């Protein structure tokens, strides 16, 4: 059996995390991890919902050393968590926020006391074949589809990403991230990169521009900011003065060249984008202001053309079909020409039009309904809108109905009540026909 | 419903305009929650709203403010916070 260490190339007394402005050494982290691992219930599955990135990291590692699998739910809505839990026996949630409850699921609270380091602990080795995590894509019937991540694949992707973005191994780096570690992109960048490339991470999850500034200032150089176009726009437009950032990573939604250029100028840094998907993880990178083309990670191969493209790598169990329309230049270079599937990603949360439409049409008295992604204008974030056929319902009723199943960022605004949807004779609804309906209102 | 003060109307208008809300700014209940079950705002709105507030009033919203929940709990509380802390 092959193994990769939990932490690569760091000494016990070196700093792994900056938590609440206090440094946490590798030894302290291992002490916390072993202590928590003793508390974990007898189950193969852990839904790690910790808000603190450091708590998430300890929970993630504790599960790994106990041979358990980390479940990464697509969002925190009770229905989604219950649906996932029903697929994995004896699942429990690890949480660090006592005010939150998950109806119907057992919860282990992250321990509040700090364990003193009593001895130097060896760095655990984890089998490459271990099922480290399960991420989900949304299905069109409301049941999330699981995707297994082996420890080996996660380590390979982390090392390949570092080789691309931080080729100088002697450089120490600190990662500050606005994206949740429960998201595949957040896990790969803010947890796996520091573990596997001698970096450190900021233990929190800054949200507002001034939080991001504070987090960046609390960690040493070289600073890397991992974020999304929505947060990047907020940083660019805010009057907050940021400390020196080595580079910024953006993912989860397409970053416009305009915003990338503005951010590079305003923050005096480089902005790199990551292309990936839940099924395959990080696939390629680019510096958005300089290149439309994406460069594959070193171990990845791209085959096919247009909407029939597959990504393959030694660390993937099988080739994975990409959900995008792709112009494949060969030599590891390609361009995206649009999404072929109906995936939606907002602020690091993901769903599909199919899933949203499913829930919309489940609402009592909704005769017909369709979500619509309005055309983008510049880099402004546009909310999803919905067209609904329903005689007796008000906007509030629809929102109430959706709220049980749908993350708030996907709630439509506005909702337009229409007499009918422009369906074809076979009942199909095309984006072109909805665009026509849309143009009547805006 | 209690009426809006002049300043609450100003903040309400800023909010409705920046977040493209469909409600009339004078119709927002000043005591109703802004998020979730109330006006239905979400985390992205919070970010947009914080930008608009910083641009208009020179006040940066922080999430480790002890009273962040209280701050966004209603138009009345948000307006009060801005009025007391604006530059």
What does this structure look like?
The complex is a heterodimer of chains A (442) and B (87). Chain A has helices spanning 26-39, 53-65, 78-87, 151-165, 184-196, 209-217, 229-237, 257-267, 353-362, 395-403, 431-441, and strands at residues 3-5, 15-19, 22-25, 45-48, 69-72, 92-95, 107-109, 125-127, 131-137, 145-150, 174-177, 200-202, 223-227, 247-250, 270-277, 281-287, 294-296, 301-303, 310-312, 320-321, 324-330, 333-339, 343-346, 349-352, 368-372, 385-389, 415-417. Chain A has 442 residues and is an alpha/beta fold. Chain A folds into two domains: 3-339, Rossmann fold, CATH 3.40.50; 363-441, 2-Layer Sandwich (GMP Synthetase, Chain A, domain 3), CATH 3.30.300.30. An eleven-stranded mixed β-sheet of chain A has the order 3-2-12-11-13-14-15-16-17-22-21, with helices on both faces. The longest helix of chain A has 15 residues, at 151-165. Chain A is globular and about 70 Å long. Chain A starts with a strand and ends with a helix. Chain B has helices spanning 6-19, 43-57, 68-71, 75-85. Chain B is globular.
- Please tell me the total number of domains of chain A: 2
CATH classification, class level of chain B = Mainly Alpha
Are there runs of chain B of 5+ residues with pLDDT below 50, and where?
A: none
Assess the beta-strand content of chain B as a share of residues. under 5%
**Tell me, what's the shape of chain B?**
globular
Our measurement of the CA-to-CA distance between the termini of chain A, rounded to an integer number of angstroms, reads 60 Å
Biggest sheet features of chain A = 11 strands, mixed
The main sheet of chain B comes to:
none
CATH structural architecture of chain B? Orthogonal Bundle
Content-based structural category of chain A? alpha/beta
Secondary structure layout plus pairing:
The complex is a heterodimer of chains A (442) and B (87).
Chain A: E1 3-5, E2 15-19, E3 22-25, H1 26-39, E4 45-48, H2 53-65, E5 69-72, H3 78-87, E6 92-95, E7 107-109, E8 125-127, E9 131-137, E10 145-150, H4 151-165, E11 174-177, H5 184-196, E12 200-202, H6 209-217, E13 223-227, H7 229-237, E14 247-250, H8 257-267, E15 270-277, E16 281-287, E17 294-296, E18 301-303, E19 310-312, E20 320-321, E21 324-330, E22 333-339, E23 343-346, E24 349-352, H9 353-362, E25 368-372, E26 385-389, H10 395-403, E27 415-417, H11 431-441
Parallel strand pairs in A: 2-12, 4-5, 4-6, 5-9, 6-7, 11-12, 11-13, 13-14, 14-15, 26-27
Antiparallel strand pairs in A: 1-8, 2-3, 9-10, 15-16, 16-17, 17-22, 18-19, 19-20, 21-22, 23-24, 25-26
Helix pairs in contact in A: 1-2, 4-5, 7-8
Chain B: H1 6-19, H2 43-57, H3 68-71, H4 75-85
Helix pairs in contact in B: 1-2, 1-4
């Amino acid at each position: 059996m092959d193994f990769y260490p939990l932490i690569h190339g760091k000494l016990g007394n070196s700093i792994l995390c900056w938590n609440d402005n206090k440094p946490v050494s590798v030894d302290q982290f291992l002490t916390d991890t072993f202590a928590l691992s003793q508390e974990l219930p007898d189950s193969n599955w852990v839904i790690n919902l910790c808000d603190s990135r450091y708590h998430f990291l300890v929970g993630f590692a504790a599960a790994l050393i106990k041979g358990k699998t980390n479940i990464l739910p697509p969002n925190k809505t009770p229905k989604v968590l219950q649906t996932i839990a029903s697929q994995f026996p004896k699942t429990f949630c690890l949480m660090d926020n006592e005010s939150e409850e998950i109806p119907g699921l057992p919860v282990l609270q992250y321990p509040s006391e700090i364990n003193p380091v009593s001895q130097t602990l060896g760095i655990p080795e984890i089998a490459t074949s271990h099922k480290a995590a399960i991420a989900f894509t949304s299905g069109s019937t409301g049941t999330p589809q699981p995707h297994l991540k082996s420890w080996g694949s996660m380590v390979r992707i982390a090392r390949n990403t570092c080789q691309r973005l931080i080729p100088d191994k002697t450089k120490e780096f600190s990662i500050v991230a606005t994206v949740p570690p429960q998201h595949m992109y957040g896990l790969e960048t803010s947890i796996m990169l520091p573990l596997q490339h001698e970096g450190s991470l900021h233990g929190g999850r800054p949200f507002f521009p001034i939080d991001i500034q504070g987090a960046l200032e609390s960690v040493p150089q070289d600073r890397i900011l991992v974020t999304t176009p929505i947060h990047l726009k907020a940083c660019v437009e805010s009057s907050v003065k940021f400390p020196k950032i080595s580079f910024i990573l953006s993912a989860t939604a397409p970053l416009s060249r305009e915003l990338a250029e503005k951010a590079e100028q305003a923050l005096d840094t480089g902005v790199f984008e990551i292309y990936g998907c839940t099924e395959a993880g990080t696939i390629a990178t680019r510096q958005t202001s300089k290149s439309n083309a994406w460069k594959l990670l070193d171990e990845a191969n791209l085959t096919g053309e247009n909407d029939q493209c597959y990504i393959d790598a030694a660390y993937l169990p099988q080739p994975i079909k990409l959900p995008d329309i792709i112009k494949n230049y060969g030599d590891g270079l390609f361009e995206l020409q649009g999404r072929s599937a109906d995936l939606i990603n907002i602020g690091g949360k993901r769903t599909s039009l199919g899933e949203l439409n499913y829930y919309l049409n489940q609402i009592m008295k909704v005769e017909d309904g369709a979500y619509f992604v309005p055309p983008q204008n510049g880099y402004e974030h546009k909310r999803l809108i919905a067209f609904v056929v329903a005689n007796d319902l008000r906007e509030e009723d629809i929102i109430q109905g959706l709220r049980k199943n749908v993350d708030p960022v996907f709630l439509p605004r506005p909702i337009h009540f229409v007499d009918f949807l422009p369906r074809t004779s076979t009942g199909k609804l095309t984006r072109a026909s909805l665009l026509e309906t849309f143009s009547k209102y805006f | 419903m209690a009426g809006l003060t002049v300043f609450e109307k100003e903040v309400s208008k800023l909010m409705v305009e920046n977040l493209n809300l469909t409600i009339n700014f004078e119709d927002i209940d000043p005591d109703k929650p802004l998020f979730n079950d109330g006006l239905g705002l979400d985390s992205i709105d919070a970010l947009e709203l914080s930008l608009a507030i910083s641009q208009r009033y020179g006040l940066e919203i922080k999430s480790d403010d002890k009273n962040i929940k209280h701050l966004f709990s209603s138009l009345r509380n948000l307006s009060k916070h801005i009025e007391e802390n604006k530059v």
